Amino acid sequence: MGALVNNNQIIRIDSNLLLDPTMCDAYMDGSYLCLTPNEFNILFCMAQKPGHAFSRQELFVAAFGHDDSKSHRVLDSHIKNIRKKLKEDARNARWLKGVHGYGYRLDFASGFEPEVCVGEGGRVFRSAHGDRVLAVDPENRIVQLDGEELALTPIEYGVLNALANKPGVEISNEELSQISIGVGFAESNRALASHVKNLRKKLGDKVKNPLWIKTVHGFGYRFLGVDETPEPHEEQILDDSIVELSEQLQMAFDTTSGSILLWHDVGGAYADVVERLFLPDDVVLIREDVAGKFDTIRAVNELGFDERALFYRSSPCVVDANDWFADVEASAESFVPETQSDPVEARENVIEDDECGPAAAAPRVAVAEDVHPRPFHGERVDTGSEGVMASEPTLPKLDEDWYLLSQFAELAGCSPDETLKLELFAYQTGFTLYADCACRGRGVSQTDFYLSLMRGAIVEHDSLPQSMLNCMSFKNMVYRAIRSGDLLDYDESSWITRDGLDELDIRDADLRSFALDAIERGADDDTPYFTVPWLRRCASELPLLEYGLSDAFYESVLLSQEDLLGHGNLVGIKLFAPRGHPMKGRDFIQAVVGREISIDIGDLVDLLSEEYGVVVPRAQLIQIIRKSDLFYSSASERVFVSHDQFVLEVE
Prior knowledge:
Blueprint: E1 11-14, E2 17-20, E3 25-28, E4 31-33, H1 37-47, E5 54-55, H2 56-64, H3 71-85, E6 96-99, E7 103-106, E8 123-126, E9 133-137, E10 142-145, E11 148-149, H4 154-164, E12 170-172, H5 173-180, H6 191-203, E13 213-216, E14 220-223, E15 226-227, H7 234-254, E16 260-264, E17 283-287, H8 288-301, E18 308-313, H9 326-331, E19 333-334, E20 402-404, H10 405-412, H11 419-429, E21 431-433, E22 437-440, H12 446-452, E23 458-460, H13 466-469, H14 472-484, E24 487-491, E25 494-497, H15 498-503, H16 508-524, H17 532-538, H18 551-559, E26 565-570, E27 573-578, H19 585-596, E28 598-600, H20 601-612, H21 618-626, E29 631-633, E30 638-640, H22 643-650
Helix pairs in contact: 1-2, 1-3, 2-3, 4-5, 4-6, 7-14
């Protein structure tokens, strides 16, 4: 239904209703709408996801940053006031529509007729007889019949969604009642039949000649709709892959301390998409396959001190001591894209489930570290037919609960590329296989396995093996956990869990307030950029700073508020600014100089060090300045906000 997600631009819900996020103002039919801050927040949050059904709790938390036992009543009161100012009738709402028994959503005017579309996981069905079209969108809890939205109760929606998830399959009364009502068929006093009757009426369905729901006498119901959900376009699939790959690169850059990330893509499988990736502001793409040797060396040498590089190499040759890139390769960290995020399941035609019983995940968590496993080989006897196994292979004893893929392959007696053998070995030993490791337990989530290691209030890095800390999937888990606030850096050598935050009496609302207060203090200082050392010096009264925790902790708190803040890096110090600001080091320095208009280069070095904790050598700082829009006069050793300012001061 359309969305505007740029928080710095006017949001047009339709031609008659506008929101201005920068001024927190709203206009209807050209006139100013006098909304309270809370009312504007509610409308603004809903405008980020037009058509999305917000539960009352979800909308309250999104708008106010915390939950409350009276949130339902408070929210309903605000919605009532907003509707009054929008001159809307709740029963025939133009924009703010109620989702019966659930919450609210923001729609466009009734004259707007979008194409039939569904969110992620949505389905489109055609009736068994005739050409009626039914769209079920579980993401937004919307059901449309021939383009017209149906007003379903939560139970009616639950019945339809359960049936539509299994078209053509007979579902028992008991199962359907449990899914939609939450109690058994008998316990509900056969209420299911009444809900199905009401649902059929809204679908225009009949019992004797059904289009959508057929009664299976004495058992339950079957959904008759023919699934015609369109396949995603190839271009959309490619775009989704690019977004996922870009996220992996962002994680890699955020978890590495080096300035160059080496992507050795032998054969050039990603050569056609690498230019389309979304890289951090301070990352430069260097392609050896396009630029050639000379231009590539020059690009590496000209890399700014406030820049990092993604070095893409598709050459099949291996870097050795005689290779021109050997020195750079020795200091660069490697990037290998994750091509498989889901567990590898054993093929049904390889081994049946009853050949070896289900292996439950062990309660302990032990991890392989610097192991020297013995290879797995089955014992063979001469039976007259070459390669025939006369007895069951002897499986090696696996003492650990986690192995790198290379270690697991060595235990299986094969190479990491022999997928089929690895799948069989994983099935026999009760492990789940992933792209870079194997975890004990059938179908165990890789993220859940890693998070199970994060027990207690504080988790020391040394409590985990170095091989796991260096594993890309583990780094990605930590990256995502910090972004979601489930895990934060406690210091340079440990993490703090939610249990640890609870012990310190730190809540999610406190983390949110810290980020909002930091943004406000930065604006008061006439520059949007700030660092944690700057906050310690200029905003020491912030409540979260009174805990006296490490810079790493406060940086991870700010990283967890990524919907509010962007971040960059300059000489190892993380820079923060409200979303939408460029995040190169030169942009930060330009903002600092812009506040001063002009400043001696020595004073600028001292200011960056003393106020922001950014220690930049003078020569490096001059190089960064010359790559920006600032002007540096070597004669006066002074930095000016522009060349015009230099001329003005000289005259």
